Amino acid sequence: MLLKITERAGEQIRMVATQENIDLDKAYVRLSVIQGGCSGLTYDLGWDTELQDGDAQFDINGLSVVVDRRSSLYLDGTELDFTDGLEGKGFHFSNPQAARTCACGESFGL
Fold this sequence. Notes:
Layout lengths: L2 E3 L1 H13 L8 E8 L5 E8 L7 E5 L2 E5 L1 H7 L2 E8 L2 E7 L5 E2 L5 E3 L1
Parallel strand pairs: 1-6, 2-5
Antiparallel strand pairs: 2-3, 3-9, 4-5, 6-7, 8-9
């Protein structure tokens, strides 16, 4: 599976971890795709301290990232970026598999 996290997104993840007292030596960044949003699927970004059966673990820009098997099918080729420009501040997923996205950019469909 190919997954990219830009330097800006990595820096923001580290900053949020510090603010939330998350020890990145003991916690994983968990990326997943869940049902929801106006286009049917939405991205979920959070912390986890345990690997689950079927998880794939990656080291991306010094971050330990885990993705469950189902989500990896949807996330292959995706880039996670962080922006604070005119299009809104926050994490943004660029997914080449997404056939449609909602206006807010929070959900997608295949």
